[in-house]
Amino acid sequence: HTPLTRIIVAGRVLAVGPLGLVSYTPDRSQVTSAPGLSPRPKVLVMTGVSHRICCCPFPVEFLFCDLASMMSIRDFVQKFKMKKIPLHVLVNNAGVMMVPQRKTRDGFEEHFGLNYLGHFLLTNLLLDTLRESGSPGHSARVVTVSSATHYVAELNMDDLQSSACYSAHAAYAQSKLALVLFTYHLQWLLAAEGSHVTANVVDPGVVHTDLYQHVFWGTRLVMKLFSWLLFKTPDEGAWTSIYAAVTPELEGVGGRYLYNEKETKSLHVTYNQKLQQQLWSKSCDMTGVLDVTL
Length: 294
Description:
- This is Polyprenol dehydrogenase.
- Belongs to the short-chain dehydrogenases/reductases (SDR) family.
- This protein has one domain: Rossmann fold, CATH 3.40.50.720.
- About 35% of the residues lie in helices and about 15% in strands.
- It is built from seven helices and eleven strands.
- Helix 2 (about 110-135) links the parallel strand 7 and strand 8 (about 140-145).
- Helix 3 (about 170-195) crosses helix 7 (about 275-285).
């Protein structure tokens, strides 16, 4: 398997090679790695805050992008394409969880706008670069991070903004359900056109990160007391994303839902192709992306 050399990661935990890991926090950047497929991969991290990195054995570049702003996403993509470099892996891993009801700069409910629409737009704007970078036997990959909460979600096509009756948990779960539907339809489109790009979706498990800062205080107390027993560490939570990004076992394989580095079934409605198409078309309208399926 040819080493992967160009990776974009949107989010907090970054995968580089089957045994390599990059992670960072808002207050202190920390980079660690172990031997992987490529001795010197190039990693570009999308982030909404400034970071500094030291003691890193491979190049890591931070480039600002606010996934809650379509203007910021388009600006990021423009700057990336000006570099005229390939892109072998895109990891969609940014997000918010159970935040109070509020809107993005573009007027979308924040869970749906940032967790889902932001990644939808980013992926579509980078598809041409991914297509150019993939080749027979060495497909480019899109890895999108969802959550087990999608199993209890409902997708209300008439109220994707959760405006009628807002529930932070329901809004978060819906955004994660939308990501699964998006991934499956994206894979269908990529396979239909015969491009050397695959799309898979992963469930990292219950990971102890600051995403839980908005949950009920009692839940936070339980997390603090029993996190060692109930939760994965951020490093452990990254492994399925790492697996999806680089394992030779998934060469040319897409449309899979992965948990603990194994394929498993997602919620039954995610396989509804009509629902996938409806969400895709509506997402195109919301983001200004050309709907190639029409």
